[in-house]
C-alpha cells in the first residue's frame, strides 16, 4: 500500500467513526449505517484505483466527499437546532453516493478496464 493513500484511508476511517457515533448519539441506527455507505464506497474506490490518473481522481473525490459530508452532517446535527437531523442522515449520503457513482465511473475508465476491447478476427 502506498504511503500517500494511507492518509486517505485514515481520513475515511475517521469520517466513518464520526458519522457512526453521531448517528448512535441521535438514536438513528438504520440511517446511521446508511450514512456510512459513502465512506465505505470511497475506501473501495481508493482500493481499486491503479492508474496514476485514477489514483489522483480517487484521492480528490475522497477528500471532497469526506470534507463536505462531515461539514453538512455536523452543521445540521449540532449547529442548527431547528433542522431535522434525521433528514441529514438520509439526504447527505444520497448526495454523496450520487457523486461517488459518477466519479467511480471515471475511475473505472481511467484504469483502462472499459477500454479493453477484444480483437475481432476477420474471415477471409
What is this structure's SSE topology?
Elements: H1 3-26, H2 29-48, H3 52-79, H4 85-110
Helix pairs in contact: 1-2, 1-3, 2-3, 2-4, 3-4
What descriptors fit this protein?
4 helices, 124 residues, 0% strand, mainly alpha
Task: Walk me through the structure.
By secondary structure, this protein is mainly alpha-helical. It has one domain (3-110). 79% of the residues lie in helices and 0% in strands. It is elongated, with a radius of gyration of 18 Å.
What proportion strand?
under 5%
Which structural class matches the secondary elements? Answer: mainly alpha
Distance linking N and C termini: 49 Å
Largest sheet composition: none
Let me know the number of strands.
Answer: 0
Q: What count of structural domains?
A: 1
- In terms of per-residue confidence, which ranges show pLDDT below 50 for 5 or more consecutive residues? none
Overall pLDDT, averaged? 80
Q: Overall 3D geometry? A: elongated
Structure summary:
This protein has 124 residues and is mostly helical.
Amino acid at each position: 500500500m502506498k504511503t500517500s493513500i494511507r492518509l486517505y484511508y485514515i481520513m475515511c476511517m475517521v469520517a466513518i467513526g464520526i458519522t457512526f457515533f453521531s448517528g448512535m448519539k441521535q438514536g438513528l441506527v438504520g440511517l446511521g449505517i446508511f450514512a456510512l455507505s459513502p465512506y465505505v464506497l470511497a475506501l473501495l474506490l481508493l482500493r481499486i484505483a491503479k492508474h496514476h490518473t485514477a489514483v489522483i481522481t480517487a484521492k480528490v473525490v475522497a477528500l471532497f466527499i469526506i470534507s463536505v459530508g462531515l461539514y453538512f452532517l455536523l452543521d445540521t446535527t449540532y449547529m442548527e437546532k431547528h433542522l431535522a437531523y434525521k433528514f441529514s442522515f438520509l439526504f447527505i449520503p444520497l448526495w454523496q453516493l450520487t457523486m461517488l457513482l459518477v466519479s467511480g465511473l471515471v475511475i473505472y475508465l481511467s484504469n483502462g478496464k472499459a477500454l479493453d476491447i477484444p480483437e475481432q478476427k476477420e474471415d477471409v
